[in-house]
Amino acid sequence: MGPRLLLVPLGCLALLLPPPGAAEFSPSLDSDFTFTLPAGRKECFYQPMRKEASLELEYQVLDGAGLDVDFHLLSPKGETLVFDERKSDGVHTVETEEGDYMFCFDNTFSTISEKVIFFELILDNMGEDGQDEEDWKKYVTGTDLLDMKLEDILESINSVKARLSKSVQIQTLLRAFEARDRNIQESNFDRVNFWSMVNLGVMVVVSAVQVYMLKSLFEDKRKSRT
């Protein structure tokens, strides 16, 4: 079974092990997810890891007042490895042990604004490269006659695979940055339009008052005698 992702409701945060049949990540070493975190809520996810592997997690707050959220990363033993308080983004890498790592996004400090959060997981040394090499050995024969080495082929393929994965990761991050910048620009656009209308209304009122005052200065208030 591949790595698992579990979304946990606020009332079940004390549970460190996901229940059977939980939702799963695909076997890919790179996974990303975008979700909406309501005001006053806390959401947690689980990621099973192997011993001596590497877990890299990057997150960004794409939309919401303040563009901030609290972030927690806990080890399988329940120890706090990372705690970010009201940050808009962060990148963390940890060397892992066997077990389920839990990371949480906390928006309980906000009573009104929901947050749109993007995060990406990059898993290294998960033990799949050795299996790939064994699979290649089943199909590659006659390497001595072709004067080629299996190691050279695998090295070239792994190099291409690593560069493609890096390209996908960079494109994903650029999309996240673009989404956050677009949300900020739209918020600023609405704010500018609102205050422009307020200023326009004030100018109209002031102009009307000035016209009225000027007219009152030239009115002849004396009554004619008959």
TrEMBL record:
Record's keyword annotation contains Protein biosynthesis: no
Topology of the protein relative to the lipid bilayer: Single-pass type I membrane protein
A GO cellular component annotation in the UniProt record: endoplasmic reticulum-Golgi intermediate compartment membrane
Signal sequence segment: 1-23
Pfam families the UniProt entry points to: EMP24_GP25L (PF01105)
Sequence ranges assigned to domain GOLD in this UniProt record: 42-123
Subcellular location, record wording: Endoplasmic reticulum membrane; Endoplasmic reticulum-Golgi intermediate compartment membrane; Golgi apparatus, cis-Golgi network membrane; Membrane
SMART domains (alphabetical): EMP24_GP25L (SM01190)
Transmembrane region(s): 194-214
UniProt entry keywords in alphabetical sequence: Endoplasmic reticulum, Membrane, Signal, Transmembrane, Transmembrane helix
Family affiliation: Belongs to the EMP24/GP25L family.
Protein known as: TMED5 protein
Species in which this protein is naturally found: Dicaeum eximium
Gene from which the chain derives: Tmed5
